[in-house]
Amino acid sequence: MKTPEEIFAEAKALVESADTPAAVEELRIRYLGKKGEVTALLKSMGGLAPEERKSFGMQANKLKQDVEALLEAKQGVLAEAGQGLRLAAERIDVTEPGRIYEPGTKHMITITMDEISGIFMRLGYSITEGPEVETVFNNFDALNAAPDHPSRDMSDTFYITEDTLLRTHTSPVQVRTLMSQEPPIKVISPGRCFRTDTPDATHSPMFHQVEGLLVDEGVTMADLKGTLDLFAKRMFGEEMRTRFRPHFFPFTEPSAEVDVSCFVCGGSAPSCRVCRGSGWIEILGCGMVHPNVLKVGGLDTDRYTGFAFGMGVERIAMLKHGIDDIRLFYENDIRFIGQFY
Ligand code: PHE
User: Fold this and answer.
1) Distance (Å) from CA 255 to ligand 1 centroid
2) Rounded to whole angstroms, how far apart are CA atoms 93 and 71?
3) How far is the C-alpha of 276 from the C-alpha of 271, rounded, in Å?
4) CA of 309 to the centre of ligand 1 (A)
């Protein structure tokens, strides 16, 4: 049988090398548990002669106290170390530089659509929206586009099915409005459009337009010209002049394209990059609503006339802010986006 000194020496070595609270607990059971070595020693006392019992008992009890003290001291050391680790893990470095959360901004396209819409809302127009997936009927037929009109071609238009497509312009909203509202009608409709274009500096297969439609009794081309001239001045500046150039759209008659005077060179520089020396920049298409379109809405074409216009949002934003590549709008590079708000 081991002497108390031997047991103590062994316990001391083992406790010293124990490095977790669980390992220390295991040692406590090994020495002081019901079947522990120290417990066994104390129990063995019963078999001793009475004269031996006293000194042995004192030794054994001292051993028990010493081992208890060893274990307790070690648990204390480990608990303190654990606390230290926890504190280290939870340490907050108050000298660390703060994280910067950049505020978001509206996208240039949204800003421009809001600006265009705002000008017309102050003229009493209300905003209406149409779906990006349209019927072929609303996008072409109801807009008086002949069956052989080139814009209907598969190579110009994204068809979903034979009867549905990604709208090529916002003009189908004219049809939806005429079929659901009675004159006086005064709406604008901003939204996305899609054409099968290969992306380059001025083309994108997805782009934005703002459509306008006004229908009432006695509306003339003079109203159209006055409205769009006022729009150009509000959008680009009071010094802006406008020019109406004859054009063709199936759904307006007569039709025109509207140019604004070149705000880069004012028409004075033959080599101007923006107007190419012409002094004028095209900003939109427009015209008097074709009677065939009014008839789709069931309107009496002797009583009602109207005008419509459609403008490219990207183009207007590019002209206004001197942006020279349409692709910048869609790349989501915050060095670009963050310049406008
Ligand atoms: N929808 C035409 C286009 O996309 C623009 C337009 C709208 C022209 C309304 C006339 C009237 O080019």
Assistant:
1) 9
2) 36
3) 6
4) 6
* pTM for the structure as a whole: 0.72
pLDDT at residue 124 is higher than 90: yes
Distance CA 264, CA 267 (A): 8
Best of 203, 225, 249 for a ligand 1 pocket test (most atoms within 8 Å of beta carbon)? 249
Higher pLDDT, 245 or 147: 245
Distances (CA, A) of 182 to 125, 171, 215, 288: 14, 18, 9, 18
- Whether 250 contacts 146, CB under 8 Å: yes
Neighbouring residues of 215: CB distance < 8 A, sequence distance ≥ 6: 178, 183, 184, 185, 289, 294, 299, 304, 305, 306
Rounded Cα distance between 319 and 316, Å, is 5
DSSP state of 275: T
Q: Which tokens belong to 155?
A: 């190579």
Reported confidence tier of residue 254, pLDDT bands at 50, 70, 90: very high
**Which protein residues touch ligand 1 with a CB less than 6 Å away?**
169, 171, 249, 252, 255, 285-287, 308-310
Neighbours of 13 (CB within 10 A): 10
Return the DSSP state at 326.
Answer: G
What pLDDT, on a 0 to 100 scale, did the predictor assign at position 21? 87
Where residue 48 falls among pLDDT bands split at 50, 70, 90? confident
And the tokens for 274? Answer: 């923006």
Residues contacting residue 105 through CB under 8 Å, at least 6 positions apart: 337, 338, 340, 341
- Contact status, residue 102 vs residue 55, Cβ threshold 8 Å: no
For the CA of 193, the closest atom of ligand 1 is: 4
Using the mean position of ligand 1's atoms as its centre, give its distance from the Cα of residue 312 in Å: 9
55 C-alpha vs ligand 1 centroid, how far in Å? 114
209 CA to centre of ligand 1 in angstroms: 9
Q: Give the model's pLDDT for residue 154.
A: 81
Which residues is 159 bridged to in the sheet?
165
| 275 CA distance to ligand 1 middle (Å) | 21
Contacts of 107 (CB under 8 A, 6+ apart): 329, 337
- Whether the predicted pLDDT of 295 surpasses 80: yes
